[in-house]
Structures are given as C-alpha cells and as structure tokens.
Amino acid sequence: MISQVLFVLVFGHLLTFGSNKHGQLGVGDYRKRLHLVKIGGELTGKQVLNVACGDGYTVAATSDNEVYSWGNGENGRLGAKYDGKGPNSMCTAYPRPVFGSLHDVPNLAARHWHTIIIAEKVLNQKTIRGRISSPSCK
C-alpha cells in the first residue's frame, strides 16, 4: 500500500489517504485509510500552501508562515526532540509546529530523511538540542 498521498485543496485544507504506519497521515492514529480523510488538529482553520512527503513523514507550510510536521520522527526528520520512550515515541500522528515563524515560505521539499525549506528569513528561531535519533519508530 502507498505510504501517504496528500492533496491541498483550493482553500488550503489537506486531504490524505495511505498506510499511516508512522502517523504520516496526520489524522491522530496509526490506522491505514483507503479513502480520503481531512487533516485537522493544529492545522484546523489554517491555510496550507505547500506540502511535502518524505519516508513515513509529512511537512506542510501555512499562509501564516508556520511549518508543521508529523509522522516518523526518527533521525530528526520532523525537526523536533523526542524522549525515546514507548513503541511510537519517535512518531507523532498529529501535525505539530516546528521551528519559529518563517517569513515567506515559497517552497519546501522532502525525500527519504531530509527536508528542505526555502524561506526569506527566520522570525523566531528555535534550536533543537538533545538526542533525536533512537529508538526507531515501529
């Protein structure tokens, strides 16, 4: 089955379907979806402009210059620190904001473990420190 497929609708809402093994659909659980479902959580009411899918994770940029990530956080691919406890401790099944606010995010890309975000400037920078690479996401 396909890992994840996302569609950005004209008003910036996200629809998705796929395997969801790592929470990469962003719907709050790890169950596969065979039909389109809407992504909510912290993205509710926000206009998504760009979205990219990596290896079991997803990133999205909104019109209010925020970047969100969800899914498999192994090796730091979500840009967030994890405590490394529990079977899904490296995963998040809901969109979570990462970084500070970015001014003008015209594009972002994700492939395998890497994400590239193009932004004019960082408005409120946060630095990620600590252990972020193990255990693995189940």
From TrEMBL:
Which species is listed as the source? Mytilus galloprovincialis
Q: Which cofactor does it need?
A: Mg(2+)
Q: What is the lineage of its organism?
A: Eukaryota, Metazoa, Spiralia, Lophotrochozoa, Mollusca
Its protein name is non-specific serine/threonine protein kinase
Q: Where is the signal peptide?
A: 1-20
Identify the GO cellular component terms for this protein: cytoplasm
Q: Which residues form a coiled coil?
A: none
Q: Which UniProt keywords apply?
A: ATP-binding, Cytoplasm, Kinase, Magnesium, Metal-binding, Nucleotide-binding, Phosphoprotein, Serine/threonine-protein kinase, Signal, Transferase
| A UniProt-annotated Pfam family | RCC1_2
What InterPro entries does the database record attribute to this sequence?
RCC1/BLIP-II, Reg_chr_condens, STK_NEK
Identify the enzyme class: transferase
This enzyme's EC code(s): 2.7.11.1
